[in-house]
Amino acid sequence: MTFSQLEIFIKVAEQQSFTLAARQLGITQSAVSHALKCLEQHWNVSLFSREQGEISLTHIGQQLLLHAKEVINTAQIMQQEVHAAHGIQQGTLRIGSFGSSSSIHLLPELLKAYRERYPHIEIYVEEGTDAEVSRWISERQIDVGFAVLPKPQLFTFPLIQDIFIALIPDSYSVSKHSHLNIQDLQNYPFIMTRAGSQSHVEKLLKQHHIQPKITYQMSQLLTILNMVNLQEGIAIVADMAMPAELLALHPHVVKRPLFPNTQRQIGLAVKNQKLMSPACKAFIELAQSMFYQEEFSI
């Protein structure tokens, strides 16, 4: 068993294709097949089932995949520790980001500062929902990810607090108020976000026993803004997801805080604090130095 074989195993499992895995790894498809055959012979198991031209992990393949990712992750950490001991900041950092809040408000500024300090670190960013990012961390698909806290199953590092706000058509009477009483949502058409904040908005509505008249469900923030601008309903989104520049392009949309005020906490999360690579540690330390709020509490 070699690290190369484990890396090939992981890549095939992720791509569910020998051809795509070979292409991304820059090797031949026969080399991929040979590596997997060697692993299966070494372990005396079948890692993949092959039916009608499609492949999928067997039960034992799923179990071994988790361990293979742990082995590769540990090897990468060891290599980065060696580089760090020689004063050479090299390695790879895989980051997970969710929605506009982290991808627009936090990540660009953080990446710019990180790149200036560690120009030789290769950075990859995967974007998905809050739940997807947490799953990617647990499965070792990424090293660190932004997350809405708390996340009891992960090791977390607090960064910043955010609030939920209402986007209201300016023709609605409630747009003239300084805030939107959350109970008033029942009196107007409602546009439900299908983006990263959906589960948190649904939890908020359930908490206050509100069943709004949902007229649209949309996943793109720009589409939601356009529909509110057309007077089609009220939407609830995270404040950090709503740049002032974007709001200014929609003159018939009014932003108002909710009452009661509803906060959410955003931080970074890893699977195992003790197994963080130097590149990951440096990323978290830089993020906390830039964004951490003292009043943060979980």
Automatic annotation (TrEMBL):
Residues of the signal peptide: none
Alphabetical list of Gene3D superfamilies matching this protein: 3.40.190.290, Winged helix-like DNA-binding domain superfamily/Winged helix DNA-binding domain
Gene Ontology MF terms in the entry: DNA binding; DNA-binding transcription factor activity
Pfam families linked to this entry: HTH_1, LysR_substrate
Residue ranges constituting the HTH lysR-type domain according to the UniProt record: 1-58
InterPro entries: HTH-type_LysR_regulators, LysR_HTH_N, LysR_subst-bd, WH-like_DNA-bd_sf, WH_DNA-bd_sf
Gene Ontology CC entries for this record: cytosol
Transcription regulation listed as a keyword: yes
Highest taxon in the source lineage: Bacteria
Annotated keywords: DNA-binding, Transcription, Transcription regulation
Family: Belongs to the LysR transcriptional regulatory family.
Listed PANTHER family: HTH-TYPE TRANSCRIPTIONAL REGULATOR CZCR (PTHR30419:SF24), HTH-TYPE TRANSCRIPTIONAL REGULATOR YBHD (PTHR30419)
Name recorded for this polypeptide: LysR family transcriptional regulator
